[in-house]
Amino acid sequence: MNSNRKETLSICTGILRYSTISEIPTDLSSFSFPLLSNEEDIRLFSFTDPYETLFENNQMPRRSVDKEIFMYSTQSRTSDGLGMRWMINNSSLDKLHLINLTQPLLLDVYNGIEDNLPTNVIYSIKQNQLIDIVLQNTVAANGVCETHPFHLHGHKFWIHSQGSGMYNPLEKLNPDTNNPILRDTLTLYATSYSYLTPNRTSTNYLKPCGWIKLRLIANNPGLLLLHCHIGSHLFMGMTIIIKEDIEHLVMNYMSQN
């Protein structure tokens, strides 16, 4: 794939070549390039007053939550001492368990079968509950607090608040009330002991180093993953499963020809 890069706009245009064609096309005159948004588009999607009117139904609820789930993330060695695992509340999702399943877990729970659920990483919530999930960061075994980008399947959520050190559930927080944006990813930052700080030492292991709280409405029945989006951290077990409102789970099957 070749590229034609315009320095002023930082736009890359790719040329797709099929295996049956030997020559690479060089004439770009027939290409149709996307147009920049006009002034009206920009006005409608600017994050000012129009945002409030366009997305007023998506504003974060201010009332007290029905349930708060605390996720304490740590890094620890495997039982044989040969490897490392990322843990949430001292539990880690075993990927080998999932690989050996004969059918999806979602189909199991729909049919009332829960024997195969990895119960150590399951967190249950009910229909229409207002849920807060707190992700707590701690220093890894090498003395460094790492940053973790988290992704939640099946939901959009709001970032309620975030802070340094250890989360205190008794502390009165001032959430972001300026129409926080609905999203399905967030970043749990290292607020101390990061790679850029000089105080990196193994004696810092497990020290709290930042937290973030998300808020969601339980309106999507199913089994939903919440996991670190760094591939190695995901496969090292930094994952939990939200078991949401299974009583109202509906399965829609697509016909197969």
UniProtKB/TrEMBL annotation:
A matching Pfam family: Cu-oxidase_2
InterPro entries named among the record's database cross-references: Cu-oxidase_C, Cu-oxidase_fam, Cu_oxidase_Cu_BS, Cupredoxin
GO terms, molecular function: copper ion binding; oxidoreductase activity
Entry keywords, A to Z: Copper, Metal-binding, Oxidoreductase
Keyword Oxidoreductase: yes
Ranges where the Plastocyanin-like domain occurs: 116-192
Protein name: Plastocyanin-like domain-containing protein
Species this protein is from: Rotaria sordida
